[in-house]
Design a protein that fits this description.
This protein has a domain of about 140 residues. Helix content is about 25%, strand content about 20%. The longest helix has about 30 residues. It has 16 helices and 23 strands. The strands form 5 sheets. It has an 8-stranded antiparallel sheet with strand order 4-3-12-11-10-9-8-7, sandwiched between helices. It has an 8-stranded antiparallel barrel with strand order 13-14-15-17-18-21-22-23. It has a two-stranded antiparallel sheet with strand order 1-2. The chain is an alpha+beta fold. Bound molecules: 2-acetamido-2-deoxy-beta-D-glucopyranose (NAG) (10 copies).
């Protein structure tokens, strides 16, 4: 049984089993609108400000401490459309006041490095310029330098030493599924980072000079393409490909090389013109900004890592950006302003599970399923970044058309701040969406056809997903009883019928819209033990049936005029019911 903190409205008369509706993946209400005028949402933001004030004063979040005397941050919350976003919170640490360069007070236009948040932007540009068509092509089609390594040895002859570069696809690299090394020559390489004491003190054997990385002295000397590839291909594979996601920076360097090969254009120039300029991301850049007056430099430009040149690692983790700019970029994703809506929806899906049941990986989304916070599980599409003194977190919640951004600090700070925001935001967002859906759709709809007594009454329930079908009569027949019979539900009293937006909508004139919903009809009776391949919350498998005259009985169409719902059509019944109350 699924656990839930919400007390379900429908309880089976006897005892323990609490029916929990099983919506389809995705939004359970139309996206909330006019959030700046929603008292619930504004109340939640007010609460969030007090909580964040407390966090900065005490250095404590419910999820762990943050070094608030040394860490500054910028947080933005936005929906798909509101210019500038819905909320902004700035915190400038005491440490920042001691700097001689950069800002003393962070603002939403302050410039941070975003670390691996860059990977998300790299894939965004990839989708814009290259699209989906090469995801299944091997990297050797585009990076000729890997061909000798592919020929030299193979996994079939030497699995523990050799990577089959001819079988490693661009899609595998983008989703960390290639099983290739995390990197070549980074600060994680102890010989690069430099150990404070002789290696023997740590129990490490001395290694010959030839085993030292051939390039990549941190901060000053990023590897050029050839030595990097030579080094990377000589490393051992990490995991068998397509087995488990294993995070790889190297994969993103290879993708950048593939990008330049496919497009014949400079990655850097294309990023600047096709993404940053196009979205007016004026504070974002590929290279170190020439003017650092807007920069956040907690320990000065060098020690903070702000001016460190990352060479070919820039598309992996080196970009510069600001809260305002990430808001613009997030909004362009949510509103599908640069890519088609279907491309965005395909992109915002997992490629693979991880061993954490609530997490999955996309390209390169780090996806987290949030159970028990609202009426349904929803997924956060995130990307965390960390480089030198900087961290960033971008979170998109497609079910709600909303986002949050955390700025600088250590990785843990960005995570703790994000965790602090989530429970203070999403319940209010859902409550707002539910209230708006109630105002718009709830009520009784009636037949206007002489002699046909048909009606349907819709409502919403506190803490519950979707529009609930309270009663439904078709030509004087209790249609819920009829469905209950067809669905094999024992008694109509145990039928739960509700509907969810299908995402199909059509503007038919300047003021009119057709909006599609699908019903989910479920028994609220105690199910048999689900087992391992059982039917627990598997409503997706039974959508669009039963059918009557080639139309699913669960198909509903609302007609909206000037923002007001005027009618509903249960399409299988070939009748339009006018909203009367
Ligand atoms: C805001 O905080 C108050 C006091 O803790 C609480 O009663 C209220 O429900 C909160 N509002 C929202 C929308 O979370
Ligand atoms: C501030 O945070 C601390 C630690 O999380 C908590 O114990 C305290 O109740 C909070 N104070 C207010 C006024 O919210
Ligand atoms: C920050 O706080 C920690 C723990 O309270 C303390 O050890 C450290 O010295 C403080 N740093 C600054 C820059 O104030
Ligand atoms: C792309 O790579 C392929 C092989 O990997 C090579 O044959 C081709 O010349 C390259 N094209 C460009 C434009 O670099
Ligand atoms: C070829 O593969 C072997 C391992 O089978 C490795 O030791 C050697 O360094 C490789 N040579 C090149 C040029 O990649
Ligand atoms: C671009 O962003 C700047 C601030 O960074 C702003 O002043 C300007 O109005 C924006 N331009 C457009 C066309 O949105
Ligand atoms: C640097 O940027 C700041 C703020 O945008 C501006 O006021 C200043 O004139 C710039 N300095 C130079 C040398 O361009
Ligand atoms: C409504 O029911 C009556 C009586 O059974 C039947 O004669 C009539 O055809 C039905 N009309 C529609 C539109 O379903
Ligand atoms: C819906 O129609 C049925 C059957 O004619 C009737 O009994 C019921 O009162 C109607 N419900 C509403 C809310 O009009
Ligand atoms: C701008 C800023 O406050 N930077 C901080 C980022 O996080 C590191 C590690 O906690 C701090 O040392 C910096 O001061």
């Amino acid at each position: 049984m699924r656990a839930s903190t919400f007390v379900p409205v429908v309880l089976s008369s006897s005892l323990v089993f609490a029916y929990i509706p099983c919506p389809l993946l995705g939004p359970v209400f139309p996206a909330p609108t006019e959030l700046s005028q929603s008292t619930t949402f504004q109340d939640a933001l007010g609460n969030l400000s007090s909580i964040l004030d407390n966090v900065t004063t005490t250095g404590l979040t419910p999820y762990g401490a943050i070094p608030s005397n040394a860490t500054s941050f910028s947080i933005g919350i936005f929906d798909a459309k509101s210019p500038g976003g819905l909320y902004s919170y700035q915190y400038s640490s005491p440490a920042l006041q001691q700097g001689t360069e950069g800002v003393k007070q962070v603002t939403k236009d302050s410039v941070y490095r975003i670390g691996s948040g860059s990977k998300l932007i790299t894939i965004y540009l990839f989708l814009l310029e290259v699209g989906w068509k090469y995801w299944n092509h091997p990297i050797t089609d585009f990076v000729a330098e890997l061909k000798p390594a592919a020929r030299n040895c193979s996994a079939s002859s030497n699995a523990l030493d050799c990577m089959d570069w001819d079988e490693i696809t661009l899609g595998a690299l983008a989703s960390h599924m290639a099983g290739i090394p995390r990197d070549y020559s980074t600060p994680a390489e102890l010989l690069v980072a430099g150990l404070p004491m002789p290696v023997e003190v740590y129990g490490l054997p001395p290694v010959p000079e030839s085993d030292f990385p051939i390039c990549g002295d941190t901060y000053t000397d990023a590897c050029l393409k050839n030595p990097y590839l030579q080094g990377l291909t000589a490393e051992h594979p990490v995991y068998s490909p397509f087995t488990s996601p294993v995070y790889s920076n190297g994969a993103y360097e290879l993708l950048m090389f593939a990008f330049e090969n496919i497009t014949g254009k400079s990655f850097e120039t294309t990023l600047e013109t096709k993404l940053f300029d196009k979205l007016n991301m004026t504070k974002s850049s590929y290279n170190v900004p020439t003017n650092i007056s807007d920069a956040v430099l907690p320990r000065g430009p060098e020690l903070s890592g702000f001016v460190a040149e990352l060479g070919n690692e820039i598309p992996v983790g080196g970009y510069y950006s600001s809260q305002s700019d990430l808001t613009r970029m997030g909004q362009s994703i949510l509103s599908a302003s640069l890519l088609s809506p279907n491309t965005i929806k395909q992109w915002m899906k997992p490629v693979t599970f991880t061993s954490n049941p609530n997490s999955a990986i996309g390209r390169p989304w780090e996806i987290f399923r949030v159970p028990e916070l609202t009426s349904h599980n929803f997924d956060l599409y995130t990307k965390l970044g960390n480089v030198f003194s900087y961290a960033s977190m971008l979170v998109l919640a497609p079910d709600y058309d909303s986002i949050l951004v955390a700025g600088n600090s250590s990785t843990a700070t960005a995570q703790h701040l994000t965790d602090t925001i989530i429970p203070n935001l999403f319940p209010a967002l859902e409550q707002t969406a539910r209230a708006q859906a109630h105002d718009k759709f709830a009520g009784t709809y009636e037949s206007t056809t002489e002699g046909v007594a048909s009606n349907i009454t819709l409502t919403t329930q506190a803490g519950q997903p979707g529009l609930v079908i309270e009663s439904w009569y078709s030509n004087s027949t209790n249609f819920q009883v009829a469905i209950a019979g067809v669905e094999g539900v024992q008694a109509p009293a145990t039928l739960d019928a509700r509907m969810y937006p299908s995402g199909l909508s059509q503007q038919t004139s300047a003021t009119c819209q057709r909006v599609g919903f699908r019903g989910i009809f479920e028994s609220t009776a105690t199910p048999a033990e689900a087992g391992f391949v059982g039917a627990e919350c598997s409503s997706w498998g039974a959508v669009d049936q039963p059918r009557y005259g080639n139309v699913g009985v669960d198909e509903f169409e609302f007609k909206v005029e000037d923002g007001e719902v005027v009618s509903v059509t249960p399409r299988a019944l070939r009748i339009t019911l006018k909203k009367i109350a």
